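To: structure desk
From: M.T.
Subject: fold request, one chain
Message: Could you run this one when you get a chance? Sequence is below, nothing fancy, just the single chain.
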Amino acid sequence: LPYGAKENFWEMGDVGPCGPCTEIHYDRIGGRDASAMVNADDPNVIEIWNVVFIQYSREPDGSLKTLPAKHVDTGMGFERLTSILQKKSSNYDTDVFVPIFEKIQAMTGAPAYTGHIGKQPNVAIDTAYRVLADHIRTLSFAIADGALPSNEGRGYVLRRILRRAVRYGSQFLHAKPGFFAELVPTLVKHMGDVYPELVAHEKLITDVLTEEESSFNRTLVRGLAIFAKFADASTASGSNVISGPDAFFLYDTMGFPLDLTQIMAEERGMKVDIDGYKATMEQARERSRADRARGSALAGGVGGRLVLEAEQTDALRKTMSLARTDESLKYVWHKAQSAKVCAIFGGSNIGFVKSVEELVSKLGTDAAGVSVPFGLVLDRTSFYAEAGGQVADTGRMYMNVGSLSAEWWLDVVDVQVFGGYVLHVCVIAGEYVAGKTKEVIDKSVVVGSEVELRVDYERRAFIAPNHTMTHVLNYALRSVLKESSDQRGSLVDANKLRFDFAYNKAMTAEQIAQVEEEVQKQIKAQRGVYAQVVPLGEAKKIHSLRAVFGEVYPDPVRVISIGHPVSDLVSDPENNAWSAYSIEFCGGTHLTNTSEARAFALVEETAVAKGVRRILALTSDAALAALRYGSELQAQLVTLEQLADRDQWSLLSGNQKGSSISVFSSEVDAATISASVKHKIRERIAALNERMKKAHKEMSSGLIVQASAMGDKLAEDARARQQSFIVADLPLGSDNKICNKVLTSMQSKLGESSAVLIISKDDQKKKV
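Reply: Done. Structure tokens follow.
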């Protein structure tokens, strides 16, 4: 059956890959000509299969560009095919959903599912059944696959789905708090045999859903009341629209996603002012966000973004006939390398040019006097392009300056890879653009010219230990936390290493100490770091090899083994002995021996999202400094404990550095030291504070007795002299409670019409 673009042209969104499609539709009734019912929303004539010929890219301006690589995307509707095989009129009547519906009814006591839709009776209850069953499946599969609810990207999609389910269950089925996660065991039992990931991650799924639901429940009831207030106010004013600011308040303050507010509005026969909502959100973003793109080299300058899209990589490959960049030199250290300029990219607004002179000409006066970033594609490179969590190399690219006496170079500020082509982001200094050394630009920065590459190896020397120790940290976490610590991401730069991993609760102080000790042990063991490129199929067979979930690895793939040659692992891949080593896929730059890291300090362990923890750690000089500082703080603490042993509580409760517990505690909180050491110091500070609290209580009791006796004597003497006022200097320190008690006692003895002034000075705290 022929159809137009509306029915037979598939697009994933406003922009992106798309193309024509062909579909298979099925008539549940059969024995008739159902062609007129295709794409007519007839529930008995349904689409069950779709084949999309992905060949275009929809651009922001609405135009279509032919993709450099075309493919076929095909998909079948599993639930729809099941309903056909089981002769059911609805997906929800199949055994895919029935067990979940039965659990929902048993859990909530709601009326049984009847399949009502539209304006039929109990439609809200049946809709709630469908929402809960659909959403528990979506969320469980997603979490098992490594996605987690959060405030951005795919994580926010999951959070919206969960909150919609919780609202339906709570409002229409009167489910008790915590109900949603109770559906997980039923789903796992029903689908676990074909999706073993559900079985393996059942606890994680349950814990994540429980935490998310608990968090949302704290604002749900209040949010529903606020929504009702907004809706009633709009209705009273003669409007059927929830205003943009009101919808944004529900999102920003109460955690109600926009689509949830829209659904609630529709249930009241109302709408949401979407444009007003977007405008309010944009205003909030403008107030709070920093312009990160301004500081990013990839953001480019007046030439546009320095990102090679499919159109540019296709031009490099087909129009310019360029081979992908040879990156093998990135593993060679401390050696200048030569290369040839193959392409110059001025940015998304400029495209490719033959020379920097042409680029400057195209930029015109907009570039005068400013630094202009641009990209160079070379035939080969010794620069490491950002990948695998490791930041890009920086350095210089020396140009052929011909007869000019001055040596001249470009600063390489970033390196990225797109479709196998490495783009070196360089900067032309403002003085060059202004024309002061135009001759240099003319003669040196042109396609075909030779350049000398000088990587900043000193900077890389700080990055490499952080990367190698990230691998060792991954191994240590597995050793301490066992199999529940799969990697979720990492960042390795010259200052630190950051490692995200799946774990549903904070690590204990003992676990943190064990992980840190294990990494330090690996450094002291002086283990060799081995790298070898291996066919992907063979590499995957290696016992205890760790890979990042969702990451696509090349074939062949580079294997990094710490402590044992990769060749041995490949020759005997199933050997259980390999579990004692760190083995990972990795294309990064590494040390040759763990001893080169010199030191390791795990300085922070925090939560990133539900079920994901983050470790920050240091190596080399930074780690040594952190460990040394930790030792210094422990020595300071010994001094404070010695003051306590001598009952110097006035000093300890003061605000002088070197003797004050509170000042020392603040210094510890701000210190970059081992998290294990910080925990131990805080425990000892807490013990000191308890001792000081007890000592102050004892001192206060004795001082009150002594001061009360002195005050009473002064009051009695004044009465004997028939004096109605007292001015006295008493040794009460700076404790207001003690002063007030003595004052009250003296006034009661002297009489209501008396006046009493007590002066007390505290020499230690320098207070009167």
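Reply (cont.): The chain has a mean pLDDT of 87. Let me know if you need anything else for the meeting.
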